User: Fold Sulfate permease from Litoreibacter arenae DSM 19593.
Amino acid sequence: MHHRLIALLSSLNPVRPWFRQVTTGTLKADAIAGLTNAAIVLPQGVAFAIIAGLPPEFGLFTAVFVALIAGIWGSSMIMVSGPTTAISAVIFASMSQFAAPGSQTYIAMVLTLTFMVGTIQIIAGIFKMGGLISFISHSVLIGFTAAAALLIAASQIGGALGIERGDGGGVFERLIHVAEKFGQVNITALIISGVTILSLVALSQVSKKVPSYIIALVIGSGVAYLLGASDKGVAMFAPLQSIVPTIGAPNLSFGLIAELLPAAATVAFVGLLEAISIGRSFALRRDEPYDSSQEMVGQGLSNAVGSFFQCYAGSGSFTRSGLNADAGAQTPISTIFAAGFLVILLWVLAPYLEFVPVPAMAGVILFVSYRLINFAEIRHVLTSNKSETAILAATFLTGIFTELDLAIVVGVITSLCVFLYDSAHPIVAVGAPTDVNGRRVFKNAARYNLPECPQISVIRVDGPLFFASVENVEQQFRRVEGGNRVPKTKLMGLKGLWKIDLSGAGLLLKEIRRARKAGADFHIFTTNAPSLTILRRLHVFDELGASNLHNNKAEAIAAAVAAADDDICKDCKLRIFLECALKPGSESLAPNQEP
Assistant:
């Protein structure tokens, strides 16, 4: 308990270890990166808040406070946090079932949800649960993000076409609404959204440092002005209600917390999965240390505190983080600069939001949703790994056909099922020696069609040998034996054995007795210290015998060949092992048959 308290105080300490790395040189680089980031996030914050069903200013508040707190208390030197498309989509999908998006009730519930998300994340960080994220397949995030992108796109098609907004629902419900109202398409709105999207496509080819979203919105607004859009029924944005957040505590009634707990857990998980994936990626790229549990605390603090300042749940942003790195950021001070510059830009540009047409912002969000889908990664998964394909498909299809927050649950469960299935099916392979570039190495005999010794099998087991895998392993042992008339001595290598329990030990004891009953023998070779300790504790070596336990394959082969039946050896022409030269009959081989 004492160590847990010390760890808690350390993770919450406002004096962070990275402070020592701040110099005059890093301050200059971080200031430039912060300004670039602020210019990018201004239209993003508005767009993401709209996706979440919240007033535009909430996205900007989130971009300031969440980025500031997560940057200071997180673990990444480069990651920038704030509103993200994935979390915005989950919040919209989860919360719109409780209240009308944009209503005061909806806003109050989202702030409560945000506080709960932060609390869950802080608790997870304090209990050092960061490593658990590694057990969740990356395909879950890919499939979920693709489903979220389609939901976002479906929600914005109506705005891009100038069609009256529907009542919500999933992807297909929104598309059906657009199809039913297609006769009401406003050509002016279509031109504005089309020009905005084309501008973004062109600007994206120039440079990541260009504030493409702002430029595209200016172009779209200019086209709207030239076409007289407001007089042709094109909706325009309402002015921001406030550029200063209202400070207040979220509603923490027991009934509301119980009602929102499943959604809060989903958002917390999605946020941590995003943040840790991004933070770890940049830490590896920049050769920097990274503590996923501390990142959990930083993300949790940013959300819990942000809920008092009209922020909704945020996480790490890959776009802003990548831009931060490209712009030359050196320390988390860049996020402080980004928050400060964003406040200044907000004061300067907020009055002009009312001149931005809704179709232009819809075009921006459609472009963002398209960029959210990682087509290259999806293609790679589909063509390389069946298990990951199943995880991706289960997550994506659940998000499309049911609820988006349920997609994460299904993806995680599928991911764990795949992990358990793989654990229950360890690799059991028979090896045989062959020459590769003048070196004698062991390769899979069946795969490479290599001859095997008629008296000895060298078997490798890679994976866990526990209650769930023993049946499969035993079946593979019988398959290895095949139709051999002569019982083979088994030499079992346990180098890749990373877990064994009482059931696994029982299988080894059974195989030892089976081999000896048939007139053969059983040898084990391994230097895996944990496996040796467990096998000794489970009394496997008492049955095996000290002489049948070897440190390496060569020792085991030498012992097995020495004990092999000489009458069989003298008529054998294969001479699989080098040690076969010491057996009867080797002197009668032709020179080109020597081992």
